[in-house]
Design brief:
This protein is of the alpha/beta class and 144 residues long. It contains 4 helices and 6 strands; from the N terminus they run ααβββαββαβ. It has helices at residues 3-19, 36-42, 99-102, 128-134; strands at 51-60, 84-87, 95-97, 106-111, 120-124, 137-143.
Length: 144
Amino acid sequence: MSSSKRSFVLTFILVFSLLFPLKAFDSPFSSSSESFQDFFLTSKLSPTTPQVMEVILTGYSSSFEETDEDPYITASGKRPYFGIVASNFLPLGTKIKIPEVFGEKIFVVEDRMNPRFKDRIDIWFPSSFEAKLFGIKKAKIYIL
């Protein structure tokens, strides 16, 4: 961080702490030795912190019963592979993680679902058996 940016950040923190003392808030720092300024300067949070939401997860495969037209081409024009998901509420190309179910694996929205599903994520599996075995789950997704 350049010295001018650091000076700006420190000035901002000082002015903020003078205008809004910690005692005015129900702060997690009020009972600890860590101050607001210490947290702010060492925080790992950034403008790129992922958005988190809880959604219903289902599985699908490239079977004719589960897809429209050509089952081996996604809505984005790509061939399906494990790591592709279908979603109607996220733009194509959006990257997500589902740590509760798949750890650190990154999925990419490359397909769409039936329009009646507005709040689901459909995960592609190589076979119908695997998709059915996955079932329906509720989990948090992290939009990257």
